[in-house]
Amino acid sequence: MSHNRGGTGGETALRDFEADEALLSEILDDVIRADGAERTLELRDRALELARRARAGEERAGDELAELVAGLDLAELELLIRSLTRWFQLINLAEDNERVRRIRRRAERERPSPRRGGLADAIAQLIELDYTPGDLAELLGRAEVKLVMTAHPTEARRRTTIDKQARVFRELRRLDDELGRDEHAARQRIRATVQELWGSDELRAVTLTVLDEVRGGLVAFAGTLAETIPVVYRELEQALAERFPDGPAISVPPILRFGSWIGGDRDGNPFVTAETTAGTLELMREHCVRVLESRVELVAGRLSLSERVSGPAPLLAPILAAGEEMFPALAAQLAELNPEEPYRRAMTFVRERVRATATLDPHGYRAPAELLDDLRLVERSLEQHGGGFTAEGDLHDVIRQVEVFGFHFGTLDVRQHARVHRAALAEVFRNLRVSPDYADLGEDGRRELLCRHIEDRRPLIPMDISRFSDQTREVIATFRGIKSALDGAHPGAIVAYVISGTESPCDVLETLLLMKESSLARAGGEQALLRIVPLFEAGATLAAAPRMMRTLLDTPVYRAALAAVGDEQEVMVGYSDSNKDVGYLAAGWATYRAQSELAELFRERGISWMFFHGRGGAVGRGGGPTHGAIIALPPGSVEGRLKMTEQGEVLNSKYTVAEIAHRELELATSATLVAGGIRDPRLERERRARFEEIVDEMAATSAATYRRIVHDDPDFVEFFVRVTPVQEVSRLRLGSRPSRRSGSTGIDDLRAIPWVFAWTQSRIVLPAWLGLGRALRAAREAHGLEVLQEMTAQWPFFTTLISNAEMACAKADLGIARRYVQLWDDGPARVRIWNELEAELLLARAEFAEIRGERRLLDSEPVLQASIDRRNPYVDPLSFIQIELLRRSRSQPATADASQLERLSLLTINGIASGLRNTG
């Protein structure tokens, strides 16, 4: 393998991507040779040479690569797959390291001006919009940015792989950060870790359990995020102080918070039960309180202020008195060791109470607010007795961590599908002889029945639920379990209940009735303890969402439940299923319009709101750069309040490296503040109305094209199954949740993750572009190119839409895709469908070139373009291998090699995912 070796010879302060790439490539080669796999290196280098020649236009080279792969036995193929996959995993680390360098260089280059996209930049933009200190205080007071970690199974790597890669990354960072560091010693440590990687199985031996996913999700919180959060808040405080040095300090509340779906999302996952959710809350609490205990202990060790020197601290008397009563043995020890250090004694008592909190000892803190009271008392004492600088140090950071994380790192959302609630209540009504045919009552009849029982003070569901089916008992147990958790060790840990598949007001009222029956609300919806969050996903439900919410707001029992949670309506909009339903452009436009109309409705009714964005990692699932996605939201829809999912692979790519995590957090927060602070429309109303009319036309054209091909062609499902590895993706042990919501084999019940993942693997990337090219051409012919260019330059929604689709089209590869298509031997159907898809992709690319004025896709994004160019020759051999394995396994599925063929197919899925840095 030919690599640029420059920059590795001790140039510690001047390292760059090429130096890291050379170092890691050399080490991987050394490890493979040490394993006696010299033949693997020869095969790999030959495969890469052919792939490069094929990419240079030498058609015969592609055929030679296919012949080379076809001639290898399974053992040789496995070693070749492993060598390419491990290379990608290491090069990903080099790219992450280079991103850290770019972040630092940008900050240095832009100093003393605020860093673009940073928090100081957000404050500067708001001041330019004539925000006064009072305006900023009001905006910060209502602002909330909530990032929700989910267990969607898009992380193909095992945890052991991620941990080993993290160790390699730390060595790369140290080579950058520590001048004069011994590169030889670093190379030795990296080599040892890479050898562990080489010798480890890339596939999970067993399927992850839900609690395994919970533990994995907590890793980022206990590590990077716990350290990064105080830094982000300090920067915001500093930006405000610098802008308004002479006035009173503007208080910064905990606007950036976290949530999780892991262990709470039971939609289509039979393994998430009431018992699982209880175990999830215990794990969240255990890990979070352990982190807080260590932080409090650190502060206790540092607050050595002596009464003899600094004077007495009378404000600490309540903490000291309570500690002496609760922990007499510890009090005696502290009186002997630290008799004149009241702050150290007080914080040691606080630490002991935090430790007791972890074990549910009665001396522990009942809720985070109690701990905050003690910490703020210590802070106030320091400020009043000459210790203001000390108070602003580590203690300030601990207070911020408790404010943001509470005792669980974040709140746990619970989610279930509407049809599960409907089936459970239908059984309850039938069993109790309330209504024998609830499902057939019609919308008005069901709504009347639900409201009547919500208003009734008498319980409907008996305490003994043994008479009901397993499914119905589980639904009831879920609501009762939430109430038990909130009353017990986890007050405030669950605040939202998300209903996927929401189509009508009854879907929400069914949830409210189940809450009332579990004492999560009183009769009439009074004193509701949870937000009920409808999730609008498909094109039709997004369009109907404003009408549905208007009906709910006119329903007294629901209005009472909403008032109980502060008159704030949370609405979730889904990108994945709507994309699968109507395609990329129409789905994006449907979510945009739904948010605009819902925000107008809520404003008209005098209630606040928060939109919850169900974004995935891939463009076809709402993915793309976070800052641009937030700025692109409809004017007036954010109001400084935003919630969004962070899924699967995104967790590790964003939140395991401190500098990257910091940048992602500040981008999300600053964009939300700016989007929420813009008082006037970004464009003149008349011009924006014209743009919206054009996109409305485009969405209709795009959706018609998409649905005609995907949903109306009777052969399309078979095409999808035959030319992508969707069946293999579904068997890969990515997570605890099944790949389908039911036993159906159609597209509608297939989860969006394997849908997007499979198209990405085959390099077609269909969910990100199908229908868009035809829509762009029709708009250009009807309205002119200049209008589309103006929309791209001036309308953030359209800018982001085009930018993300262009990125996806750059990752799509027709040459490789054609070889996947040949896997299906049904000539006429295959040719008909593929010819249309190929024409649509080429049309989209041509329209991008027209609008952007580019010679090549991503000419305006040279870093991303270079990354794709660098990776393609390495991904191609893996694609050729995957095609060969699929061909073998499908032609002779009952052979003795069947299990090994499947195993190697799964390995290629991991390898291609690493190479493309994208799954689903």
Description:
With 920 residues, the chain is mainly alpha-helical. The chain has five domains: 1-113 and 159-200 and 863-920, no CATH class; 125-158 and 207-265 and 616-680, no CATH class; 295-405, de novo design (two linked rop proteins), CATH 1.20.1440; 427-494 and 496-564 and 568-606, no CATH class; 685-860, no CATH class. Helix content is 65%, strand content 5%. It has 38 helices and nine strands. Strands 3-2-1-9-8-7-6-5-4 form a nine-stranded parallel β-sheet. Strand 8 (608-614), helix 25 (626-631) and strand 9 (641-647) form a beta-alpha-beta unit. Helix 28 packs across helix 32. The chain starts with 16 loop residues before the first helix and ends with a helix. 50% of the residues are buried.
Task: Give structural attributes.
single chain; 920 residues; de novo design (two linked rop proteins); 5 domains; 38 helices; 9 strands; globular
> Mean pLDDT, as a whole number?
89
DSSP helical segment count: 38
What does the largest sheet look like? 9 strands, parallel
Tell me, what's the shape? Answer: globular
Spatial separation of the terminal alpha carbons: 30 Å
Portion in strands: 5-15%
Low-confidence parts lasting 5 or more residues at pLDDT below 50? Answer: 1-13, 733-737
**Widest sheet: strand ordering:** 3-2-1-9-8-7-6-5-4
Q: Which structural class best describes the helix and strand composition?
A: mainly alpha
Rg, rounded, reads 29 Å
